[in-house]
C-alpha cells in the first residue's frame, strides 16, 4: 500500500501540524468494493497526558506526526484477505496521528486534534480522485482507537461523501468496529507511575469530550445523554444507538482495558495476578458478554471471544477460529453477504480459564501431527509383524488397508471430535 498525502486539505492535520494521509491499494480489476480502516494508538485526555504523548522529542513520533511515515506499508488482516469479496476491494488504511481517536476537530495544549477533519478529507479524496461513487459497497471500520472513531462517524459516512443526495443513497455502508466495546467500570487500581491523571476510561473520555469538539454524537445518543455527552464517545453507550449495520468485535479479556483497569501492567502481557485480579477479569468477561448480547439486534453481527486479545482484525488472528469454529472473517462475511440472517451473535463461553480457545488452528495442527505420528508407529509395528498381524495392519495403515476403521470419530477443524467445519 502506498502513502498518499492529504496536504491539499488545510485542516487534515496530525497533532504536530504536519499533513495527514492514507495508504492506498487499488483493486487489481475494476471493483465497487471499498475497505477503509482507521488505525489504533491510544489517545491523550488532558495537558499532562498530551505532553507525555506528543511533547518534546515525542512530537515527531508516528502517533503525532506524519514526517517519518514510510512511503509503503504492507496490507495485513482484513486488508490481506484472499476471499473474493475482501481481496478484490480497493483498500485504504488511515494512519493515526491526531491523538483523539479520529473524532475531534479542535486545537488544544499546543496540539491539533483533527481526526474528524482527516476522515472527511479521506472520504472526499476517495470520491474526487479514486472513483468511489454510486453503487459502491463501502466497509468503514477501525481497530481500537480507530474503532472508536469508526463508531462515532459510521452513521455520518454517507453525508461526508461529496456526492448529490440521491447518489449518496446508492452507496452501501457497513461498519467493522473492532475493540470499541468499552465498559463503564472504575479501574481496580490507579496508575502508580505514569499517567497519574488517568482515573479510568470514562473519566478520560469525558475530558476528551470537553476540548476536542466532537460533533458526530448521534442524534439519538445526544438526546438520551444530553447532560453527559461524553457517553456518545464511549462504546457501552454509543454502540447501542449506531444505526448503520456493523460487525462489533470485543474480547472478553480485552488487553487494553485490563491493562488500564489493573493500573498499567504491560498491555499484551497484562494477565491477572492473584485472586483479586482474577475475580475482576471474570466480572469483566461476563459484562462484556452481556454487552455483546445487548448489541445483537437489527442488521448487526457481534463477535466476542474469550481471548486475551485486542484489535486483531488487522492481524493474523482475523482468520483464526475460536471454540465454535467461527473466525472474525466468517463473521464479517456474514454481515456483508447474508444480511437476511442478521442479527448474528457469536459469544465464546465454552471454557472456564483465562485466555482460552484462542489458538484452535494450532491445537488442530498439534492434534493432527500427534495422530500422524501414532499412525506411523502403528504402521511400523504392523509391517514388522506382517505375517502375524496382517489384519491389524489393514485396519490402521492406509497404505496397507482401506483407510480409517469404521466408527473412528472425525477430528473437526476446531480441534475437537465432531464434523469438520469449513473455514470461511
TrEMBL record:
Highest taxon in the source lineage: Eukaryota
Single GO MF annotation: hydrolase activity
PANTHER family: NOTUM-RELATED, PALMITOLEOYL-PROTEIN CARBOXYLESTERASE NOTUM
Signal sequence region: none
Record's protein name: Pectin acetylesterase
Region (Disordered): 399-424
Amino acid at each position: 500500500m502506498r502513502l498518499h498525502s492529504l496536504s491539499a486539505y488545510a485542516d487534515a492535520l496530525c497533532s504536530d501540524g504536519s499533513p495527514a494521509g492514507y495508504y492506498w491499494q487499488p483493486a487489481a480489476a475494476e471493483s465497487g468494493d471499498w475497505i477503509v480502516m482507521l488505525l489504533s494508538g491510544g489517545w491523550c485526555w488532558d495537558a499532562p497526558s498530551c505532553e507525555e504523548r506528543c511533547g518534546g522529542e515525542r512530537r515527531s513520533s508516528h502517533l503525532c506526526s506524519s514526517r517519518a511515515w514510510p512511503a509503503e506499508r504492507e496490507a495485513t488482516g482484513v486488508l490481506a484477505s484472499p476471499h473474493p469479496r475482501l481481496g478484490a476491494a480497493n483498500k485504504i488504511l488511515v494512519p493515526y496521528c491526531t491523538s483523539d481517536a479520529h473524532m475531534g476537530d479542535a486545537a488544544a495544549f499546543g496540539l491539533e486534534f483533527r481526526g474528524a477533519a482527516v476522515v472527511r478529507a479521506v472520504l472526499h479524496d476517495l470520491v474526487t480522485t479514486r472513483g468511489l461513487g454510486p453503487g459502491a459497497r463501502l466497509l468503514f471500520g477501525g481497530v481500537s482507537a480507530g474503532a472508536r472513531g469508526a463508531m462515532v462517524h459510521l452513521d455520518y459516512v454517507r453525508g461526508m461523501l461529496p456526492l448529490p443526495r440521491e447518489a449518496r443513497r446508492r452507496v452501501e455502508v457497513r461498519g467493522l468496529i473492532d475493540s470499541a466495546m468499552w465498559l463503564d467500570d472504575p479501574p481496580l487500581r490507579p496508575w502508580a507511575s505514569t499517567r497519574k491523571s488517568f482515573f479510568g476510561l470514562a473519566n478520560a473520555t469525558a475530558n476528551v469530550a470537553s476540548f476536542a469538539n466532537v460533533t458526530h454524537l448521534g442524534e439519538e445518543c445526544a438526546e438520551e445523554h444530553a447532560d453527559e455527552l461524553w457517553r456518545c464517545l464511549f462504546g457501552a453507550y454509543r454502540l447501542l444507538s449506531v444505526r448503520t449495520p456493523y460487525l462489533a468485535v470485543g474480547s472478553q479479556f480485552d488487553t487494553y482495558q485490563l491493562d488500564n483497569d489493573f493500573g498499567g501492567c504491560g498491555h499484551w502481557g497484562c494477565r491477572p495476578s492473584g485472586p483479586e485480579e482474577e475475580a475482576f477479569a471474570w466480572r469483566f468477561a461476563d459484562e462484556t458478554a452481556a454487552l455483546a448480547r445487548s448489541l445483537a439486534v437489527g442488521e448487526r453481527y457481534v463477535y466476542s471471544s474469550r481471548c486475551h486479545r485486542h484489535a486483531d482484525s488487522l492481524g493474523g488472528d482475523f482468520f483464526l477460529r475460536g471454540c465454535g469454529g467461527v473466525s472474525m472473517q466468517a463473521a464479517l462475511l456474514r454481515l456483508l453477504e447474508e444480511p437476511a440472517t442478521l442479527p448474528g451473535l457469536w459469544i465464546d463461553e465454552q471454557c472456564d480459564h483465562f485466555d482460552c480457545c484462542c489458538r484452535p488452528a494450532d491445537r488442530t495442527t498439534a492434534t493432527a501431527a500427534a495422530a500422524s505420528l501414532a499412525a506411523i508407529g502403528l504402521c511400523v509395528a504392523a509391517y514388522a509383524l506382517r505375517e502375524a498381524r496382517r489384519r491389524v495392519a489393514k485396519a490402521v495403515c492406509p497404505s496397507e488397508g482401506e483407510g480409517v476403521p469404521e466408527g473412528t470419530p472425525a477430528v473437526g477443524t476446531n480441534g475437537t471430535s465432531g464434523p469438520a467445519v469449513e473455514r470461511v
